[in-house]
Amino acid sequence: MVMDKLKAMGDANVTLQDSSFWSERVQLVRETVLPYQWRILNDTEPDAPPSFTIRNLRIAAKEIDGEFNGMVFQDSDLAKWLEAVGYSLATHPDKELERVADEVIDLLERAQEPNGYLDTYFIVKEPDKKWTNVRDWHELYCAGHLIEGAVAYFEATGKRKALDIVCRLVTHISTKFGPEPGKLMGYPGHEEIELALVKLYRATGDYKYLELSSYFIDERGQEPNFFRMEAEARKDPRHYNFAYSQAHVPVREQETAEGHSVRAMYLYSAMADLAKELDDDSLLQACRKLWNNVTQKKMYITGGIGSSAYEEAFTVDYDLPNDRAYTETCAAIGLVFWAHRMLQIDVNADYGDVMERALYNGVLSGMSMDGKKYFYVNPLEVWPTTANHRHDMASVKTTRQSWFGCACCPPNIARLLASIHRYLYSYDDEGIYVHLYSNSEARWETSGQRVTLAQQSQYPWDGHIQFEVQMERPAEFATRLRIPGWTREAQIRVNGHPIAVNVENGYATVQRQWNNGDQLELILPMHVERVVANKFVRANAGKVALQRGPIVYCVEEVDNGTNLSDIVLKKQLEPEFHVDKEFLQGVPYITVQAWRSSLNSDQNLYLPFDEATERVSTEIRAVPYFSWCNREPGEMCVWLRTE
Question: What pLDDT is recorded for position 601?
Answer without folding.
Answer: 61
